[in-house]
Amino acid sequence: MATNSQPLDFLWFIPSSGDGAYLGSDALSRPADPGYFREIAQAVDRLGYSGVLIPTGAACEESFILAADLAARTEKLKFLVAIRPGVASPSYYARLTSTLDRISNGRLLLNIVVGGSAQELAGDGIFLPHDERYLHAGEFFEVFNKLIETGSAHLDGKYIQAHHAELGLPPLQDPRPPIYFGGSSDAAIDFSAGIIDKYLTWGEPPAQVAEKIAKVRKAAAALGRQVTFGIRLHFIVRETDEEAWADAERLISKLDDATIAAAQDVFARNSDSVGQARMVALHNGRRDKLEVSPNLWAGVGLVRSGAGTALVGSAKTVAARLREYQDLGIDTVIASGYPHLEEAYRVSELLFPELGLAGPRNQIRSSFGKRQVFGGGGHGGNVRVASGS
User: Where in the numbering of this chain does the Luciferase-like domain appear (predicted)?
Assistant: First the structure.
């Protein structure tokens, strides 16, 4: 069913493990810096994005703490923050969730992260096999959701024991903040069907996304539920298609074959993620066939784990590709680009008008009605042109 009559909900990304201008290189790289994360958050709050995804992992700043800092420095921005079952108890996560939702004035979104690197999971004390992690997560959210929605829960399960657990203060959002989730395996989809509000997919070709959406819809419908859908993508949007493709090549211009091979070896050895395997299969570590679908470029996934594809092109071209995903049922985009501060501006200024999105909030009036033509920023100000000329 076509859904593109409604504007997309557009979120950005906080690169909490660091940022840069070239993949696979330390040239023009930016370290993980709380001040830089605040710059990005304040920019995207003003530029019209509805929220930001804060990633989770051993290499990232802790997402709940970072979100609390950014919430105090922004006005409307929402924060998609990770709950990782097994890292802490459902009761503790319920307290974190309630507090962050209350202090942010209801701007919290929850992102379930069950899988990832088996090596990292082992470091967190999680040793369950792939499918069993989702059985554990099911018990975790049985306790978590009862606590966050009613204030009390009790379970004596196979994986989770929570005896007469209580939550003193409810979240601001009633009954709880929305729950997002991404997972491509059958076990992940079965787990998600009875719990989540929004299913997220990485940026696969439209036919593969359509197949996944159909499976999730069927699983949710079997439980009498409906879910909505989002997509996680990088963006290289420029004024022309040619310029965009040139910048895609520039992004990997300092990336050598040894670095690609090392990254792909890590993915193969450390991850049992079906979604990661699907990302790798789009390029198989080869840099000569990276356009895997019209304007969908897999170059990011040569070295980046997780989301590895970007939409590349002019604003009109990229908007057309996004409408194809909307027609499948996608209503939310979680976007990023390198470096994240500059690309947040490009996407807002170039792509948002093509998508019917409002763009910058609270813009201050810059003239008394005459059109302003940028004059270079000199002391004489801008060139004033009569309206309509």
Answer: 10-331
Q: What pLDDT does 386 receive?
A: 64
CATH assignment at residue 20: 3.20.20.30
Query: What's the domain count of the chain?
Result: 1
**Three-state SS for 185?**
coil
The position carrying tokens 């948002």 is 352
Q: Quick check: is 69 in a domain? A: yes
Cα gap 282→304, rounded to integer Å: 13
Closest CA to 162 of 93, 81, 98: 93
Kindly report, residue by residue over 330-347, the tens digit of the pLDDT: 999 999 999 999 999 999
* Helix, strand, or coil (residue 261): helix
Contact 287, 251 (CB under 8 A): no
pTM tops 0.90: yes
Burial class of 127 by CB neighbour count within 10 A (0 to 12, 13 to 18, 19+): exposed
Which tokens is 61 given? 């700043």
